[in-house]
Amino acid sequence: MENFESLDDEQSTDAPAVTGIDRRNFVKLAVAAAATSGFALKAAGQQARGGRGGTPAPPPIPLGQGEPPAWSFQAYPGGTGALLEKLAKERGRAAFDRAKFEVQPWKGPVPGTEEEIVYLPAHRLSALVKARKISSVDLTNVYLERLKRLDPKLLCAVTIMEGQAREAAQQADAEIKAGRYRGPLHGLPWGVKDLFATKGVRTTWGSPDFQNQVLDYDAEVVVRLRDAGAVLIAKLATGMFAQGDQWYRGRTNNPWNIAQGASGSSAGPGSATAAGCVAFAIGTETQGSIVSPTVRNGLSALRPTFGRVSRYGGMVLAWSMDKVGPMCRTIEDVAMVFNVIHGSDEKDPATVTAPFQFDRNADLRKFRIGYDDHSPKEFLDKLRELGADLKPMPARPGTQGLSALGVESAAAFDYWVSSWPPMPADSVAMLAAAAADTTSGRGRRGGGGGTRNRFSGRGRTSTALDFMQSQRRRLIVMKQMAELMKGFDMYVSGQGDVGLTNQTGHPAVVVPYAFGPPAAGGNATTPSTAPPQPLCTTIIGDLFADDKILSVAHAYQKATDWHNRHPSIT
Known about the structure:
- This protein is 35% helix and 12% strand.
- The protein has 20 helices and 15 strands.
- A hairpin with a 2-residue loop joins strand 6 (253-254) and strand 7 (257-261).
């Protein structure tokens, strides 16, 4: 089993020593002190830029949390234009059209118990709803009641949208009865990570400072799923500001073992889906927050290639790293949901439309599949049994000095940090010590997350030169990764390569492969005493090979039953 926690927070770095600060660092720290305390440099700067006769210059265009920068990260090292030309030549223009996803018809009796129904894969629930063997209203009521009953133990839900959900389910049933079937998600209850805007419903970002925030628009992923007929029943918990599984109500728990956190920061989607409280969920990842809770909660999920799903309406941590993806109980469910939500969106300039053609009957002999030294043997053995010809992967490039997360998140939250009253500090040295203390929970805002340091520390003191040089190095690593992947469509990674592949934008699919005691890590219980739970591994795909890695993972799941197991929750 992979052993890591979500990395969706500012990377810890060595802070300047409290004593012996050189002139450059002194100036940087002084600027940081000023930037975090509403100091007078803004006014001084405006006066210095004043017009003729001392007339103050007009203020800059105001910024909130989500406005993207003028340029966008492109996962393909040669640029998106070159990528599209390459794909069009290889696969034809028709491959860019959204594929039609057909669910297999339901056969046999309808399950009669709540436990049997809620743990059905979403694509099997789809078959039941399409055939009108179960109504969306009945299905929604089952999930709502289960969510309300289990949430006090799991703390997986922020807002249960009972009234809106029942109205949407009634509309779905009426449309299906009238022959206006919208597709395989029509009538299915789902939940979204509480980073996404939902008009008229709280969007809290897991923080007590924003627990009453109500936005007047919907995120693009919410719109696309609503247009597909899916029924949104809950805003699901995220760790505070997309960090870990702790939020203002407490810790979201793993339904396989409620003494263990669900991992973060898509903790709510992971916990609720594994507990049978939603048919599927949507999470986000910047540096591990889809992969980590999927592993912890024993699910199937896709962290897509960067740019394949719109982030519009979602809280920003890093414009060049944030990604949106489905968290489900099976790989076929993942493909079914992703088929609806992927594609370009003018409101998110980083998005791109690329072919997605999921193959339920993939021939593993046609794929070039690698593996690293930590890949689980039982998973590799099954792939070989299914016809895969596996090759060892060369060493992947390192990522030292690449992260832009601190700078980007500081920019995204500058509107908030700049509104704070002055921070009490007797000296620049005290500021340096506070910036170094990112784990003690002494941040002024939001309790134990060190939030003030997170959004006002290193990210605000890095120079523009530091940032640009790190991004130049990032492109070098992206080219190195592209060269390495020339001989592979994908590779199995025992430890996920989370840090590297979030920098390069490569997709990852998580799939359960065994059952047993979890590895130690984070807030896990001792492995020798922890109850058994699913063990998962990761398949990393070449850029925009999301359909290929899902097809291979689905072939594995057709030949195994690990994904059919579920926790027993009283």
